[in-house]
Structures are given as structure tokens and as C-alpha cells.
């Protein structure tokens, strides 16, 4: 039996977008009926997360060569590792928040152009200072992508598809992680040169240039245009998005909203801490901060931890360069096996985010992360094959539960809970707070590994994971299946 569709005489932007999905005869919860333009926007948005996964986590493979070439001290290694994350912290708020003022599409293009420029600079760097500057610039671009890519997707697609497609885009971070590791293995296997790390950045540059150009050819968010009282432009953008003739009639009405017009860049951030939004700000930012403590600490330094616990046979008999490359390849292969569970986890998140709910998955995910990290900590006290099995079990469980829960859900939630006029600022602020946690781990992890040891450090992350579950439960606000205009 065909489902009866009630068409209102006046429609909001989201009701027009949702109409495609609800009027389709295919009623399966896994069906996603969308126009080619909507799919194009989604595909272009996935590359921001792909580049983040590839470039940030590739740092663990490039750092040994950078250390040899530029004679980096332990402090300089920590600064280099954390500079890209500090850039993400600044970029998510300072640049990403500008999409509330200047438009989603404009910042969507600018961020990818900035990424391409900084990749060129990184690949041609010949000093520690230039490495630092361009690595920070890459972080600025990737940080801007956190709110803008999320909003380009969530403000352009049907409500029932939002969770699946935002998480689908987020899944490309895990694909990027694996691609970055495989790229490193391939380059280091066939390029026995101290400059091999430059080729890794050149490989990332080629698709970034193509994506920059492609982003010029998509429409601006109709939601944002209407929030700026540009109704005619919003109607034009909506028709293009939904593949309707520009001569067709698609009158739109604004959704009721008690938000005042933002008068400055800072004004929107102040509103995040008003009583009305304070709990949502805490929910969007604090669990994400806690999650990034483990994600980036374990993610970037998995090869280092494997080396510390398993004490693999070191390559000998060659010079420092060839020994470094051989050992990096050895540890990268183990890291690739562990990181495959990132992809499995996010696929499960896509499947269950609507039926189970964001909050439950985030809480269960944090608890699962704690169990995985506890297994990894226990492995430190074991010996022989049992040590290796327990360590890999712990890290693989951590990666799976992390991407099923907090790593995926925090990104999804941050772009959903705020109203349109401060949505980019809310999502950007949450991402910035999260990256502060990532910076702490990137900078302090090598120091803490040496100071307190792997066992104690992993136990600390067990405690923070349980804290993340508690904060999520206390401030929970379910967004699954809700119309984004009603947030």
C-alpha cells in the first residue's frame, strides 16, 4: 500500500528535502533516495575526514625520518606532532565558525585550498621552522572542515539519512588512516631515501587539488541563506539541490526561531554558554575531549607502544637510515592490522546510530574502550605469545568500540544539537575542545611513556573513558531521527 503523503500549503526547507525520501515507494530504513547533487555534496565532504586520517596519523611514520634529517630533539618531536592538532583546534573555531557569517560553501572551498597550499609547503620544507608552520597550516584547514563538512551534509539531506551519511563521511577518517599507513609502507619499501617522507605529502596533494576545484560547483546551504534573510537565493539553491526547474514554484517559509541575528563573530560563541545551550555545549565538547585523549594518543603512537611492549627485533647491519626505515615498516604493518577495526566499528555505527541511538552507542562505546585499554594494560604484565595476543586484542577492541561509539557519535552530535545560526560555532567549539585533548596526548604521550610507563598510562586512559560514559549519561540529548530544524 502506498504511504499517504500530506503536503502542507507552505513548506520549510527541510520539509522539501524530506519530501524526496518520504514520497519514495522504497520504505526500507536502509534506503537513501537522494539527488545527484546531494550525493555530490556528500562525496566532496568525505575528503576532509579522509585527509585528516591520512595526514595526522601518517605523522607516526614520517616522524622517524624527520628526526634523522632535521636532528630533532624529543621536545621538537612533540611540538611537530602536536602542531597539526593545534592547527585543528584553532581552525575549527576561528575558521569553521566563520561559515555562520560568510556561508558554508565559501569556507568549504577555502579550507581545501589552504590544505593544498600547505601540503606543497610541507613537501618542500627544508627547515624545522617551515615544517612547523606548514604542519600548523594543514591543521587549520582540517579544523575548518569539522563544522563546515558536517553542515554541508546535514543541511542538504533528508532527516532519516542524516545519521547514516554524516557517519558515512566520518568513516573516511578511518579509511584515510589505513590509506596513510599503506602509503607509508609502499613509499618506504621502494624509496630508500631520507626524503621519502616528502613523497607521502605529494601523494596527498594530488586529490586535494581536485577536490578544491570540484567544491566550486555545488550550491550553498539553503538553510544558511534563509537564516540571512536571502529567501530568493535560498529557493534557487534548494531547486538546484533537489534537481527542480528554476521556473518551478517552491515557496519556502522560515522556521520559528527565537534567535537574534549574530552581530559579531564572538557573539555566537557567547550564546553557547547561555543557560539555554550550556548543557548541549557540555555534551558536544566534553565527551569529545575525553575521547580524543585516547584516540590520538593510541592512534599516533601505536607503533611506539608496540615497540615498547613487544620489543621487536631491531633491524641491524645497515646505517641509521636503512635501520629506521626497516623498523618503521615492521611496526606500520602491525598498526595496519589493528586499524582495520576502525573501519568495522564505524560501519556498525552507521547501521545502528538511528535504531539504537547516539547516546547509547556513545556510552557503550566509552565502556568498551575502557575494557580494551584494560586488556592492553594487562598485556604489559604478560610474557611471550600471550602478551602479543592480549595487546592486539585490547587495541583492536578499543578501535572497534571507539568508532562504534564516541569517535563517531561525538562528531555527529556536535553538528546536530545547535540551531542553524550558531550551529557552525557550536560544532567548531566542540571540535576545538576535543583537539585540545588531542594536543595534550600528542605532546605528552612520548614524555609520559618514558616517565610513568605504558601500564600506568593505559590505566589512566581507562579512567578517562569511564568518565566519558558518565558525562554522556548525565547530559544526554537524543537527536536520532529528529528534523534538524527542530533542534
Notable traits:
2 domains; 18 helices; mainly alpha; 487 residues
Could you characterize the architecture of this molecule?
The chain is mainly α. The chain folds into 2 domains: 33-230, Growth Hormone, Chain: A (Up-down Bundle); 270-486, Growth Hormone, Chain: A, CATH 1.20.1250.20. Helices cover 75% and strands 0% of the residues. The protein has 18 helices and no strands. The protein has helices spanning 13-22, 36-70, 74-95, 99-102, 104-123, 128-154, 159-190, 196-214, 222-227, 231-241, 265-271, 275-310, 320-352, 358-379, 384-404, 406-414, 423-451, 453-474. The radius of gyration is 23 Å and the shape is globular. Residues 1-9 and 21-30 have low confidence and may be disordered. InterPro entries: MFS_dom (IPR020846), MFS_sugar_transport-like (IPR005828), MFS_trans_sf (IPR036259). Keywords: Membrane, Transmembrane, Transmembrane helix, Transport. This is Major myo-inositol transporter IolT. Residues 41-477 form the Major facilitator superfamily (MFS) profile domain. GO terms for molecular function: transmembrane transporter activity.
